[in-house]
Amino acid sequence: MGTSSSSSGPKSGVSFDPPWLNSVASELGSPLEKISGEQSSQNPRQIESVNLPLGIAPPGRFGSARRYLGNYAETGDKSSLRKALGSYSRKGMGGASNVAGRMKASTSAGAGLFNFLQGIRNSSDTKVRDWVNQLSAKNLSAYEIADEIINQIISIGGSQEEESCKDSMNQAISELLTIQPDIDLLAMDNDSIWTVMELFIANEAFNRLNFDIGQLFESAKYSSREVVSRMNDMKEYLKSEISAQIQELRKDISNPSTNELNKLLQSALTRTFEIFEDDQ
User: Fold this and answer.
1) What does the pLDDT average to over 159-171?
2) Alpha-carbon gap, residue 109 to 212, rounded angstroms
3) End-to-end Cα, the chain, rounded Å
4) Structural domain containing residue 101
5) Cβ(207)–Cβ(167) under 8 Å?
6) Separation of alpha carbons 81 and 280, rounded Å
7) pLDDT score of 34
8) Which of 58, 83, 171, 207 stands the most exposed, by the fewest C-beta atoms within 10 Å?
9) Is residue 233 part of a domain?
10) Is residue 120 part of a domain?
């Protein structure tokens, strides 16, 4: 399912964003200070919080989204999937900007990962270079290096958002290693870092949807083979749409600050779910 535990999904009559979300998102800023010893308040690339209007979720918020998703699970019909995603966004979440806002921890973590991958490649800070050299000297596998990188960004975890981000980062870097098996994760070029961003945000959107409306995939009426096939197709569809938006937005910003990238990822999610809403 992409996350480690099942859920009945969020309820109606509550805020679209839980009260602790801003706190989690703010803790997932740029991680380079952990190594360099700089104070985050002195860092001009520090994550800027994304604040969106709060709202109360309506009754039966995900009913039609789950119905369309059920049709997709049974038939594999992509139009049913698009309608499920559009209904999830428009009715279930109160609009595409709310979907993006609900994923502010994801975009903060993604911006932090981007900043960190660029930082360990480019940094002139002695402590950062020492960290990279010590890691290189251990003769670790690429997957072990990936774990070390992710642990710098999400060192403790525990919340649903943090565990999901860890899972999505692992998946994104694993997919990159499948595409580029010889890549040096400590010296990645910008195109490879952008690829990781696209894969990470797509994985996060997939996890979010599964947590909110994906419980039907756990039904005994579907075979394991059907479930895996449908979920893989769903993830690939999300990846295609989100990647297209990120690639379009990054044309105007070659080397974004962490704040700029956070806003870019928020915009990419908003635009993606606006497209899904157009199918309603």
Assistant:
1) 92
2) 20
3) 26
4) 21-35+59-277
5) yes
6) 11
7) 66
8) 58
9) yes
10) yes
- pLDDT digits 0-9 by tens, 83-142: 999 999 999 999 999 999 999 999 999 999 999 999 999 988 889 899 999 999 999 999
**The token pair that represents 169 in the structure block:** 């980062």
Rg for the chain (alpha carbons), in Å?
19
Q: Which helix (H) or strand (E) holds 157?
A: none
Identify the bridge partners of residue 56 per DSSP, sorted by sequence position. Answer: 15
Closest CA to 245 of 194, 204, 209, 207: 194
The total number of structural domains that make up the chain:
1
Copy the structure tokens of residue 31: 């991680």
Domain membership of residue 9 (yes or no) is no
Q: Report the amino acid identity of residue 66.
A: R
Q: Which residues pair with 15 in a beta bridge?
A: 56
State percent of the chain over pLDDT 90.
Answer: 65
Rounded to 5°, the CA angle 44-49-55 comes to: 170
Q: What is the pLDDT of residues 185-217, one digit of tens each?
A: 999 999 999 999 999 999 999 999 999 999 888
> At 44, is the secondary structure helix, strand, or coil?
coil
Domain membership of residue 269 (yes or no) is yes
Tokens 């956070």: give the residue. Answer: 262
Query: What pTM did the predictor assign?
Result: 0.84
Q: Which tens digits make up the pLDDT trace of 212-233? A: 999 888 888 888 999 999 999 9
